[in-house]
Amino acid sequence: MEAYPEKTCSIDRLVTHAKLVEATKAGMKTQQRRDGIYGLPGETFDLDGMTFVVTDLKRQRLGDMTDADAKAEGYPSLDMYRDIILKMHAGMTWEADALVWVHSFAVQAE
Which top-rank group of organisms is this from (predicted)? Predict the structure, then answer.
């Protein structure tokens, strides 16, 4: 098992925006980028009665994101993802070298 730093937030805060909750439940959102660790691989979280499991956790530079990464976040393109993120976080700038934690997840098998 890989050693990770301590969690910085509760896993129930990983996916909270209503539209992103719906995209996750529909299977269109399978990743969430955060500046800290919200969930570790194997950890589960619930969204409206559906249980999801964190399948992977890795670091990524914002500048290394692709359109495929943005689609996994539930957005149609990287440009749209970047625009919305910057609008959601007043004062934030898009720094290519900034590191984020990529939480990948899937519906937990029964």
Answer: Bacteria
